[in-house]
Amino acid sequence: MSRLTVKLGKLVLPNPVMLASGILSHGSLLEKALREGAGAVVTKSLTLKGRKGYETPVVVGVEEGLVNAVGLANPGYKDFLKNDLQMIKEKNRVIVSIAGDGPDEFVKIASSAEDAGIAAVELNLSCPHVKKHGLEIGKDPKLVRRIVKDTRGVLKIPVHVKMGFCDELIRSSLVAEDAGADAVVAINTLPAMVIDVYSRKPILSRICGGLSGPAIHPIALRCVYELYRELSIPVIGCGGVKDWQTATEFLLAGAKAVQVGSAVAIKGLKVFSEITEGLAKYLKEYGFESVDILMGSLEGKK
């Protein structure tokens, strides 16, 4: 195994740099991300039925980030598993993100995904701009417990839970761990909006969306640091990873792996090889034999 090999419970990945959910949907692009160096890929969040998403504009660039309100656009879980998943050679490095409208939908989609041979599922409990499919779920520890427990009860593969920034982040994450989650992904985008001063209107068709990119990295970093101190299961850092330095910050704060989202839109898929090569050089230069040793090795922590 190389210095970059990482174990996330039952998952063994060639490196800790993953594609975040919500970025790429077509199977050929997910396959290309793996070829370009991603340790694993997370699909766009799949729903019971296909969703067209919101009308354009759905994404707008801001200083140090993007604000989007795509509306969970996806072909539906059946279509994805039947068509797009078949384009990917290494299904054992595919994590299916799920956005359900209640526990039963999470269970149904997760069971079908496991039957299709994927590596793990990621329960999206944190989308900031689609009602009944996101952030309000993660704010409700009782609902988190039920969804995670019910899903964990029917699967053998790992169950990851994606949490958003909110007052209940720590509590809901602890509840998810107690209910059987194998890892917590933190964080999702933050509620935001952008206004065009000339038309005097919000730019996004849905008015508000989710802020991603470097702008949220310090917030996500703090969340990972606090979750690492509270949880026994792995934490996967997500938010503003754009290079090997920002990825390493997450690892030092306690993340077992990181996810890359907005940087893919800005730099392209080459960002995965850039990050992994830089991380490998850093590990060698400072004498870390593995990523696991680096994890949580922040000096001066209290």
CATH class: Alpha Beta
Question: In CATH, what is the homologous superfamily?
Answer: Aldolase class I
Number of strands: 16
Largest sheet: 8 strands, parallel, barrel
| Distance N to C terminus | 32 Å
**Residues in β-strands, percent:** 15-25%
CATH 2nd-level architecture:
Alpha-Beta Barrel
Helical stretch count?
11
Radius of gyration: 18 Å
Number of domains: 1
Tell me roughly what share of residues is in helical segments. Answer: 25-40%
Poorly predicted runs of 5 or more residues: none
CATH third-tier fold name = TIM Barrel
List keywords for this structure.
TIM Barrel, eight-stranded parallel beta barrel, alpha/beta, single chain, 302 residues
Characterization of this structure:
The protein is α/β, with parallel strands linked by helices and 302 residues long. The protein has a single domain (6-48, 70-191, 215-294), classed as TIM Barrel (Alpha-Beta Barrel), CATH 3.20.20.70. Helices cover 35% and strands 20% of the residues. The chain has eleven helices and 16 strands. It has helices at 27-35, 77-82, 103-115, 135-138, 141-154, 169-178, 217-230, 244-253, 262-267, 271-285, 291-294, and strands at 6-8, 11-13, 17-19, 40-42, 59-62, 65-68, 94-98, 120-124, 159-163, 183-186, 190-193, 195-196, 201-202, 208-212, 235-238, 257-260. Strands 3-4-7-8-9-10-15-16 form an eight-stranded parallel barrel, surrounded by seven helices. Helix 5 (141-154) packs parallel to helix 6. It is globular and about 55 Å long.
